[in-house]
């Protein structure tokens, strides 16, 4: 059984997979624990596949855990291709490994062109054509990051973020909540119209915040990066396309 670990900017998501199929999942907030690896399952784990967009120190903590448990650790990085999926970046490893894993999962889920939106600390979009080629994407701040930027760069100090977001707010907190949320919604709605994919996939910690307010129907896939890691690990095990850096 493989333990899959998605190390993000604020939290760690993990999953257990058998033969490329995700069986169980969980999450840990990294900021709350100096050594968050104690929250990871150990029983029956034969190998760990990890994708990290955080500082190297976070991956080093996982490496120490793997060494202590005597489990092989594979640090996954983006590659030129995986199965029928072709990376669209001129330098494939410049594509964030979390985005690459999400693309692998999206392409493996079905046929046709697909647009993947990951709404978290950053909001990213990635396009995969019906021919399996990654056509590129974009990166912008997520909703919470936009709000944090306003706090850092201005004298605005919102005390809470209301749940309901009218077009015309009557207080500062509501105005910030509505403006930042609608910025994300406008981008996602425009991408759905302009790119017109066959499928729309939505993932990330802020996906529930935006999903109900979008003008198009997006399929929510909360564990898309872990799904991609599961597919990737299975392909590597079969000797297929993939790139990992092994740490013993």
Automatic annotation (TrEMBL):
Substrate binds at residues 89, 96-99, 172. It comes from the Bacteria. Keywords: ATP-binding, Coenzyme A biosynthesis, Cytoplasm, Kinase, Metal-binding, Nucleotide-binding, Potassium, Transferase. GO terms for cellular component: cytoplasm. K(+) binds at residue 118. Its cofactor is K(+); NH4(+). GO terms for molecular function: ATP binding; metal ion binding; pantothenate kinase activity. One of its GO terms (biological process) is coenzyme A biosynthetic process. It is found in: Cytoplasm. Its main location: cytoplasm. It catalyses: (R)-pantothenate + ATP = (R)-4'-phosphopantothenate + ADP + H(+). The active site is at 98 (proton acceptor). It is an enzyme of class 2 (transferase). It holds the Pfam family Pan_kinase. Catalyzes the phosphorylation of pantothenate (Pan), the first step in CoA biosynthesis. PANTHER family: TYPE III PANTOTHENATE KINASE. NCBIfam families: baf. Homodimer. This is Type III pantothenate kinase.
């Amino acid at each position: 059984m493989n333990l899959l670990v998605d190390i993000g900017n604020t939290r760690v998501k993990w999953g257990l997979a058998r033969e490329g199929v995700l069986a169980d999942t969980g999450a840990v907030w990294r900021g709350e624990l100096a050594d968050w690896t104690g929250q990871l399952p150990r029983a029956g784990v034969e190998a760990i596949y990890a994708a990290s967009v955080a500082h190297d120190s976070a991956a080093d903590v996982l490496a120490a855990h793997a060494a202590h448990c005597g489990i092989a650790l594979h640090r996954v990085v983006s590659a030129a291709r995986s199965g029928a999926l072709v990376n669209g970046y001129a330098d494939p490893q410049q594509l964030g490994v979390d985005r690459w894993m999400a693309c692998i999962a999206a392409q493996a889920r079905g046929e046709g062109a697909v647009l993947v939106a990951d709404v978290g600390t950053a909001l990213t979009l990635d396009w995969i054509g019906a021919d399996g080629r990654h056509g590129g994407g974009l990166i912008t701040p997520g909703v919470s990051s936009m709000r944090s930027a306003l706090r850092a760069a201005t004298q605005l100090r919102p005390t809470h973020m209301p749940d309901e977001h009218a077009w015309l707010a009557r207080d500062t907190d509501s105005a910030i909540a509505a403006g930042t949320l609608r910025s994300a919604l406008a981008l996602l709605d425009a991408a759905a119209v302009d790119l017109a994919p066959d499928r729309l996939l939505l993932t990330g910690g802020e996906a529930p915040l935006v999903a109900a307010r979008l003008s198009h129907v997006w399929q929510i896939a909360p564990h898309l990066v872990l799904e991609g890691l599961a597919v990737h690990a299975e392909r590597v095990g079969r000797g297929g396309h993939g790139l990992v850096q092994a740490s013993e």
